[in-house]
Write a structure and sequence with these properties.
Elements: H1 20-34, H2 40-57, H3 61-67, H4 71-85, E1 91-95, E2 98-101, H5 102-128, H6 131-142, H7 152-182, H8 192-223, H9 242-275
Antiparallel strand pairs: 1-2
């Protein structure tokens, strides 16, 4: 219930006042920078940047930490796979004929840091941007595809509704868990077979509820005269201000520093080859 992904938090911060197109473009640029071959010091720099954005946007740390809970099982799975597959680096310890290498641990930590940064940055975007503004931004970026008769508005609206209904589905799941618990279904303890049976009894009504809500939303949009193929106007115009330019320049500087520090030896070597 404390997960902030998809839930807009109405605070008055400088990130809230930024143009949604600026925030979406900055998110894409930072996500690209995360996947460069960086050292742990460079990842530490990106972590500091992410923490600064969390403080400026006033997003609660507890909400972001709650989003990491589903990752623990995946982290353990990645650690086991990497330990069994990766055989590079220094040998840390040996059990019988099995040896664990430092490369496996470093690879797992790198993946975990990337996932944590991705979740944090995405949570900041959805927490500081209204779903309707996010729809406008996505539609604006997809607008060149209108020449190819690509349904840009429909795609943008679908993405926005999907993000908007994430917290709604979480709330519905909590209600179903409490309803099942009142009927004697124990999802917290018991044998694995009993837990799987409890999850089945939870998933089926959750799907039914999701389809009912989607049908109600479709009826409500049709009752208000919504026509996805009609020519649309905007009551609120998106304005690109000076603060948006400053934000993009700062983001571009962070991405440039990440690329330069990651490929600095290769860049210097290439320049020397060209010079010779």
């Amino acid at each position: 219930m404390n997960i902030a992904l998809g839930r807009y938090i109405p605070y008055d911060s400088i990130i809230h006042r930024l143009d949604p197109r600026t925030k979406l473009l900055a998110l894409i640029a930072l996500l690209v920078a995360i996947f460069f071959k960086l050292s742990f010091w460079e990842y530490a720099f990106l972590i500091v940047v992410c923490l600064a954005l969390i403080l400026i946007s006033k997003v609660k740390f507890r909400s972001i930490l709650q989003a990491f809970k589903p990752m623990w099982l995946m982290m353990l799975f990645l650690l086991i796979i990497n330990v069994l597959v990766i055989k590079r680096g220094d040998a840390l310890f040996t059990i019988a004929s099995f040896t664990c290498y430092s490369g496996a641990i470093f690879q797992t930590l790198q993946i975990i840091i990337r996932l944590a940064l991705m979740i944090s940055l995405t949570t900041i975007l959805t927490s500081t941007t209204k779903p309707l503004d996010l729809t406008y931004a996505i539609e604006w970026f997809l607008s060149p595809l209108r020449v190819l008769r690509f349904p840009t508005h429909e795609i943008a609206m679908t993405i926005s509704l999907a993000l908007r209904f994430i917290p709604t589905l979480f709330e519905e799941t909590q209600k179903l868990i409490k309803a099942q618990a009142s009927r004697g279904v124990d999802l917290q303890s018991g044998k694995l077979k009993e837990k799987i049976g409890g999850l089945v009894s939870l998933i089926v009504p959750l799907f039914v509820s999701a389809f009912q809500k989607s049908e109600e939303l479709a009826d409500a949009m049709e009752a208000r005269g919504y026509n996805p193929g009609a020519k649309r106007t905007r009551y609120r115009k998106l304005d690109f201000a000076i603060r948006d330019l400053v934000g993009l320049l700062v983001c571009a500087l962070i991405v440039f520093l990440s690329i330069y520090s990651s490929y600095h030896p290769e860049i210097v070597r290439t320049l020397e080859i060209w010079k010779n």
